[in-house]
Amino acid sequence: MADVELEIVVAFLDKDRGFAYDNKFPWPYLKGDHEFYLNLTTSRKDPSKKNAYIMGRVSWEAWIDEEKCNPHLYTVVTSTTLKSEGVPYLQKVLPDLDAAIDYVTKPPVSDQIEKVFIMGGGRNYEICIDDPRLKRIWVTRIFGDFKANVFFPKFDHKFKRVSCPTLDESMQEDNGVKYQFELWERFTN
C-alpha cells in the first residue's frame, strides 16, 4: 500500500466519549448504527481486495461470530496473550498496533488490502490518534445517559468535522436512543 491511510470507526457517548462498560457497549443495540458501520467497513472499490480490521483482544472477543467470518475482512488482533493458531476467521495476532499496521500495509498482505480500519480498543485508539497516517474518524455520537468505563481520547484539536455527501448526518433513533453520524478529518498543515 503506497500511502497508508488509517481510519477509525467508533461509537461513543456525546457527554464524555465513553464507548464501553465492562467490555460491552453501554447502550442497547442500534440497528441503524450497525448497518452503517458494516456498510462502511466492508465496501470496496476493488472486489478482489479486503479491508483490514485491526482491533484489540477485548474488542475481538466481544465481536459476534457472524461478523468475524465476513469474507470481505482481513482481521488482525493486537494482544500479548491471545494466540491466532486455530482461531477461526482471525488472520493474525500481533503484540501492538504498530506491528499490526506494518503487517497489513506491507507485501504480501498489503496486496490483498484496500482500506485499514482501527476498530478498538481503548489502547489502540489512544495510540492511533497521534499517528499521522490516521486520516479519518467515523463517529456515531450517542445521546443518552449511559455509564461507561472506557473512553475515546480527545481528538478535536487534531481533527475537524467535515461534511460528506454520502453520510446522513440527521438525528437517528433506535431502541429509544438518539444518535448521529459524523466524519472527522485530520487537519492538514
Automatic annotation (TrEMBL):
Gene Ontology molecular function, alphabetical: dihydrofolate reductase activity
Family matches, as Gene3D superfamilies: Dihydrofolate Reductase, subunit A (3.40.430.10)
Keywords: NADP, One-carbon metabolism, Oxidoreductase
Segments forming domain DHFR: 5-186
Biochemical pathway: Cofactor biosynthesis; tetrahydrofolate biosynthesis; 5,6,7,8-tetrahydrofolate from 7,8-dihydrofolate: step 1/1
E.C. designation(s): 1.5.1.3
Catalysis performed (reactions): (6S)-5,6,7,8-tetrahydrofolate + NADP(+) = 7,8-dihydrofolate + NADPH + H(+)
Superkingdom of the source species: Eukaryota
Record-level GO BP terms: one-carbon metabolic process
The protein's name in its UniProt record: dihydrofolate reductase
